Amino acid sequence: MKKWRPRLRSILLLVNLVVLLLPLGGIAVFRLYETELVKQTEASLIGQGTLVASMFRCEMARQFDLALDQGEPFDLAYGNALDPRFAPREKDVYDTIPPKLDIATEPVLPPGKDAVRVSLPPDIFSAAAGEAILPVILSSKNTTLTGTRVVDYLGTVVVSSGTETGLSLLAREEVPRALKGEHVSLLREREETPEIGRQSRVRVFVAIPVIYGNRVWGAVVLSRTPLDLNKGLYLIRWHLIKAGGILLGVVLLVSALTTLAISRPVKALIRQAEQVVSGGKGASPLERPGTREVAQLSEALSRMARTLSERAEQTRAFANNVSHGFKTPLTSLSATVELLQDPDMDMSDQERERFLEMMESDIIRLDRLVKRLMELAKADAIEPRGGSVDVQQVLDSLAEKYQNQGRDISVTHGGDSYKVAMAQESLESILINLLENAWFHGQEDVQVRVSTSLQLADEEERVVIRLSDDGPGISRGNASKIFTPFFTTAAENGGSGMGLSIVASLVKSHGGTIALDQEAQGASFAISLPPIL
Fold this sequence. Notes:
Blueprint: H1 8-69, E1 80-81, E2 108-109, E3 116-117, H2 124-144, E4 147-152, E5 157-160, E6 167-168, H3 174-178, E7 184-189, E8 202-212, E9 215-224, H4 229-235, H5 237-277, H6 292-341, H7 349-381, E10 389-390, H8 391-404, E11 408-412, E12 419-420, H9 424-441, E13 447-457, E14 460-469, H10 476-479, H11 499-509, E15 513-516, E16 524-529
Parallel strand pairs: 2-7, 11-13
Antiparallel strand pairs: 1-9, 3-6, 4-5, 4-9, 7-8, 8-9, 10-12, 13-14, 14-16, 15-16
């Protein structure tokens, strides 16, 4: 199973995302923390407002009881009618008021309008209840830093931690809404930023209705500036230091990942390339290439080094074979020329003619060697170009050609017609070389049998072409040399020793193999090529 490796672009994308997300994450964290500070302030105000509303409601009820005991008249439908949308839930269910302000989405309203004077004095019951709870509000002012106002059902302030007592707050939108029974929370801009104290740019306002039955007796309006972000961050500085350490660890981890996945493998590739340049015989693929691209590059570099080494060996072998192949005819030509040029040599016309024939034979042999060398070079350099050829059609055509020449050849097909990725002239060159080789080394009446089949090898289908003859065959001593350039057992008959080398090169360049069956009678070759399905 092929080992999974990340792509280089995936590593770079991950690094860029981390670099992008770190500042964005920091901004998001700060924004969330600022929102949390606002919600903490809102939750605190809701708790304080609910407590003050309960105190005011209880004190109002006490004032009504006193009036009833003294026989003083009062309106039983006191206060404002409760809007059904804001009616409390069943008594056995907790009616919590969760904080909801989000500084990222909540609109920040302008500063509230100032309280205004009204012609009527505050309601006497509300004023008496406010007077009763005033000491509690004032005593908690310096501790909670909260501005607290209690208004009657008409919106007039009956008790305040400031100086608005007797003035109306109906001009502020949270007050009319609370007097209908709604719990209101909103943000307003601060009128000014003090040099000392909290530096936040907003102020949180909460309005809690005072509800009794289905009537609203008044409302508690509270406001406070939330803790500013700088001071809040200072208070959690040790947590931030820990978070910074974690982020630093993430950065170091990404750096280490980049080093392991890119830097080290690339340096190893450079060392491999330098080894190839310095004449090394090969370079093994990296054991830990890191990314898929580096693995592919390492494998390509290894193949290139191996190919260069093989080509160097082939070049040396080729030079030796060329030297050997050309040495005999050149030596013969040189000796013959010396004899013909010797003035003291008494030579008859028949002897001179015989020497000239020997020279012509050597020249023809050299010409044949040059042509075969060019064919071998072409076979080594050929590249598949995406064409295809029908094996059955080529074999049938060659069989008909040789049968017309009186050759004994038969072709047997395994069934379907098989196609291989090869030019027609390349397949014909392979088959013609093998067929001519069979008749050259055997008798003219040698029988050649050709068969095709589709076989499974290493879990891959292959087209197999088998050529067999009933000639003398190939000895075991020569079997390992037959594909070596210039090796021939018929040099005296004009054999160049290049035919099978050309065949082997053509087959190999098209991803196939050729093998000699040493157990068969005569010469038997099996060519295996990848099919086009």
